[in-house]
Design brief:
The structure is a single chain. This protein is mainly beta. It has 2 domains: 219 residues, Jelly Rolls (Sandwich); 88 residues, Jelly Rolls, CATH 2.60.120. Strands 14, 15, 16, 17, 18, 19 and 20 form a 7-stranded antiparallel sheet that branches. Strands 2-3-5-12-7-10 form a 6-stranded antiparallel sheet, with no helix packed on it. It has a 3-stranded antiparallel sheet with strand order 9-8-11, with no helix packed on it.
């Protein structure tokens, strides 16, 4: 019954976006496209299945109907009602706001729902592109508050250069922001909570500034992380002709591997948990028990836990995302 699922992208037109997702082969709606929500059960952008028997059904409805056959036998029961993962493609044509996300505890207490830990895989970056990653060493709540009031927050921010293929873990509590000219695959908890500290005094089409959330941001910032760099070097898991696998991130929220494939690889959902794939380059097919599904760069696919054995075939670079089976919801 179960098969690899594709979804209709949910596009967001935030003012800092552009048209760069077209470089991945996307046919975009008119105007600015800042984000494409690829796999999401979040109310702000619910994925609708695009292929097969379940086409037209939302991801949350599918999970409610089939439960652990979709999410897996070893993931928490609560994930059936609150799917924990959200995958996006982001076009930072201009700078994003300087921002921070709350952790699970703060989010549950003050907002309801998940906090937001996330991972950035840099798909493309213009020469000289930078991200904001944390605060400069020695920055305190008092010194940051003073800098915000005096409109010199930039003096507290740590900027670092980035290039295609870089991977960064963005934990809750870390001040961060994408710079201009960067395209990213973002893997995150299913949360849309963002507290803005600074937005470059920009205005929207109506001349309005976007709201800031200074007090909440100051409450959730982890000032003990000042000066740290969360760039992942990765760990080579396998390297042979036709296949290279690198472990990028393993923590309490995500397990993410990078595959470079020229041939075939056998996989199994194993009933324990679902797998998600985001294809970065190339094309190919996923062969499963009665059929196959074509994929190409810029697409994401969800393999339900009950899919069973399958084969990924082609010449492609892609991310494989799964959730740790020992994490409490």
């Amino acid at each position: 019954m179960f098969y690899p699922l594709k979804f209709i992208p949910v596009y967001k037109d935030y003012l800092w976006g552009g048209r760069n997702l077209e470089k991945l082969g996307r046919t975009l709606p008119e105007g600015i496209v800042a984000e494409s929500w690829e796999i999401s059960a979040h109310p702000d952008g619910v994925s609708v299945i695009a292929n097969g028997e379940f086409a037209g059904m939302t991801l949350p409805d599918l999970i409610i109907k089939f439960g652990k056959e979709i999410i897996g036998t070893k993931l928490p029961e609560s994930y059936i009602h609150q799917f924990p993962l959200l995958i996006k493609l982001i076009d930072a044509n201009q700078k994003l706001s300087v921002q921070v996300h709350p952790d699970d505890e703060y989010a549950r207490t003050h907002e309801g729902g998940y906090g937001k830990n996330e991972v950035w895989y840099i798909i493309a970056a213009n020469p000289g592109a930078e991200i904001i990653y944390g605060l400069k060493p020695g920055t305190t709540r008092e010194s940051l508050s003073e800098a915000i009031l005096e409109k010199r927050i930039g003096s507290c921010l740590q900027a670092i250069p980035v290039a295609a293929g870089d991977v960064f873990y963005i934990p809750a509590g870390l001040v961060h922001g994408l710079g201009a000219g960067i395209m990213v695959a973002e893997i995150q908890q299913s949360s849309n909570l963002t507290y803005r500290l600074y937005d470059y005094d920009r205005t929207d089409a109506r001349g309005n500034k976007r709201p800031l959330h200074i007090e909440k941001a100051l409450e959730v910032i982890d000032f003990n992380s000042s000066g740290q760099i969360g760039k992942s070097r990765g760990l080579v898991k396998e390297s042979r002709p036709g296949l290279a696998i690198k472990e990028l991130i393993v923590n309490d929220f995500f397990q993410i591997d990078l595959f470079e494939l020229d041939g075939v690889i056998e996989k199994s959902a194993g009933a324990e948990r679902f797998f998600a794939y985001t294809f970065l380059e190339g094309e190919g097919r996923i062969n499963y028990h009665w059929d196959s599904l074509l994929f190409k760069a810029g697409e994401s696919v969800l393999a339900p836990a009950a899919l069973g054995d399958y084969i990924i075939e082609g010449k492609a670079k892609f991310l494989e995302i799964k959730l740790p089976v020992n994490r409490k919801a």
